[in-house]
Amino acid sequence: MASFGQQYPIDTLFTINNTPFASQEFEYLYQENNQLPIREALNLYILFQIKLSEAKKLQIDTLPEIKHELQVNRDIALHSFLYPTIVSEEKIQEAFQRIQYFLKARHILVKINKRGNDTLAAYQEAQKIYQDLLNGKSFEKLAHKQSDDQSVNANNGELGYFTAFDMDYVFESSAYHLKIGEYSAPIKTQFGYHIIQILEKIPNPGKVKVRNILLEYKAKNEAVKKQKIDSLYTLLLNGEDFEEIAKKYSEDKRSAPSGGIIPWFGLFETHPKIEETVFQLKLGEIAAPVKTDFGYHIFQLIDKKDYSSLANCRDEIERLIASDSRSKLSPEELISKIKKDSHFKENRHLLSNFYSILDYAYADLVDPLFTIAGKEYTQEDFADYLSQQASKDIYENFIEYINRIYDNFSNNSILAFYKKQLLENNSELENLVLNYENRVLVLAITKLNVWLPAKHNKKGLMEFYQKQKNRYNTNVAFESIKQEVTSDYKMYLKEMWETKLWENYKVKISQSALNKIATQRND
């Protein structure tokens, strides 16, 4: 690496084949993340850029599998900007009200994928079931006959008890709006269409944290274990330390080392007899021995939290919302927001040309169906989109079919418009996408030059082994050390390839720019 000239911009840190690279990105990475000596860190950074240059020179990004991976990564980057995490006060209040209660529900599920991914067919079937329920038909019989929930034969469609954050958010919202005994109209989740009925609603007592002493038993020694658990209980009542007794005598291997501590739990999360016992305890109180299927237990309540006050549970609720789908805009909400922000205007009446096949075939399709931020999407654009669709319903429900396809067309067009705007106007997103793409390209060319040859070049592997035999145990068969040899061969190929890259690319470093970064790091 030669000395650096003065013909480049003043913020240039190095050049590769006379292409300048600014200081900012390396400086940020080095200041924030790197614990290596600065010259070693810079060499790694330059090597990454050389590999990226080589990948672009070889047009790795034109390979079909790489193009697909680039698109996947672009979509991942876009998704975080399209659907940012929003923990609103409205959602906090909503969750707080819901978490006060457990609901017991049952449902009938109509899966879309079992009907050839035909959403309309699934919806119509669910709607028919809903009407049958309203007309007094037996829920159990309909569930057994028509529900796609595989557990229906065992539970008659019952889902047990749940509270906020236990179920899909759309399902939860529908359930909490129902009265006991009432049926929901079909609601759509990621699983399909559901008809829900609420069977019971009970207060949520909160969560508890307990210590536990467990003695397991079998029929032949149950009396001995019962006598032992009673004696331990007597010791605890006489003031012995619960934690020490648990460590010494408890046969619960998971909790004994911590003095018997069991993580927080609420109703319907463990054995009913355990919950019945511990939710009656006061802080510090020790319960008399309890027998369950697991053995004999002694419990001590060490902490309890309820949901009677938002102040007591706000942090927990905010954390749960942030990790849940309710903190994200739904696609419908996002499209509605884009429409509002981008002055969406629609001439839906112009769809009338498409309601008859003859009108559609011969109409002069030039008028705009809708505009967004001044960009027009015409009847001709929709006709092109429509010509690419296929549906078995096309002749049975033509007007409904056209409306449904139009909604898909307009929604897809609006999202595509917004994504394009984001990529063009958001530098943070642009950099994120670029970083994703660069990593994909470098990994791809590394795979091509290192991973695949190490895996598939058997002749090269054996030649490497023969030359490096003294590094291995020659008293064992090659197959028993093949993995170790392959790993070393991979490292050898990597070093050879990187050495060749350094030789083929001309690198110049600005020592003054590098010194400046090092000085700022030390400050």
TrEMBL record:
Q: Which domain of life is it from?
A: Bacteria
**Keywords on record:** Isomerase, Rotamase
Q: Give the GO molecular function terms.
A: peptidyl-prolyl cis-trans isomerase activity
- Quote the Gene3D superfamilies the UniProt record gives: 3.10.50.40
* All copies of domain PpiC, residue ranges: 100-200, 205-303
Tell me the SUPFAM superfamilies matching this sequence: FKBP-like (SSF54534)
Q: Does the keyword ATP-binding belong to this entry?
A: no
Instruction: Tell me the InterPro entries matching this sequence.
Output: PPIase_dom_sf, PPIase_PpiC, PrsA_foldase
Name the Pfam families on file: Rotamase (PF00639), Rotamase_3 (PF13616)
| Descriptive protein name | PpiC domain-containing protein
Phylogenetic classification of the source organism = Bacteria, Pseudomonadati, Bacteroidota, Bacteroidia, Marinilabiliales
